[in-house]
Amino acid sequence: MDLLNLVHHAPVTVSPEDTVSHAIEISMPARVGAVAVMESDRLVGIFTERDVMLKVVHRGLDARTTVIRSVMTPNPLTVTPNQTPQEVLQLMLARHIRHMPIVSASGELVGLLSIRNVLQYMVEHLNQDLQFIADYAGITHQP
Predict the structure, then answer these.
(1) Does domain 3-137 have CATH number 3.40.50.300?
(2) Which pTM was predicted?
(3) Residues near 55 by Cβ (< 8 Å), separated by ≥ 6?
(4) Cβ 46 vs Cβ 36: under 8 Å
(5) Could you point out which of 13, 106, 129, 136 has its C-alpha 20 to 30 Å from the C-alpha of 19?
């Protein structure tokens, strides 16, 4: 299973020198809770809705003047497309991570995965497994 199949759109990206306001403005239409922070085509951080609350709003910073570099999570943990959803879910739960960049073997950002994407996949497959078991046992199963 390629993790990129779980991602619904291309990652939204910003520069470390962009403002928090800019990051919020471009993430809202895409309906995403995180943006990848890129510098010279290299992933240098991630900026999430949690960062907005804890590092901007809670500190009383001005989103129009605060640059992403000062409030992003630098050097985020990443996964590769060939990791399983189960592996990624365990990692996300263990580390309390809601958004995970997916990088290729060469380190190129290829997607941004949310825990919602992973959980949605897991639920769909659990329902399929339950249906298979119910069919095998001759039981009517209602998902």
Answers:
(1) no
(2) 0.84
(3) 61, 71
(4) yes
(5) 106
Q: Decide: 35 and 12 in contact? Cβ < 8 Å.
A: yes
Q: What single-letter DSSP state applies at residue 94?
A: H
Positive/negative CA dihedral, 87, 15, 54, 12: negative
Tens digits of residue pLDDT in 24-79: 999 999 999 999 999 999 999 999 999 999 999 999 999 999 999 999 999 999 99
**Residue 114 contacts residue 143 (beta carbons within 8 Å):** no
Domain boundaries, the chain: 3-137
Q: Coil, strand, or helix at residue 98?
A: coil
At which residue do the structure tokens 């999430």 appear?
48
44 in Cβ contact with 16 (< 8 Å): yes
Q: What is the DSSP letter of 18?
A: S
Looking at residue 67, the DSSP 8-state letter turns out to be B
Tracing tokens 């992403």 back to the chain, one arrives at 68
| Spatial contact of 96 and 50, defined as CB atoms under 8 Å apart | no
Q: What is the DSSP letter of 4?
A: G
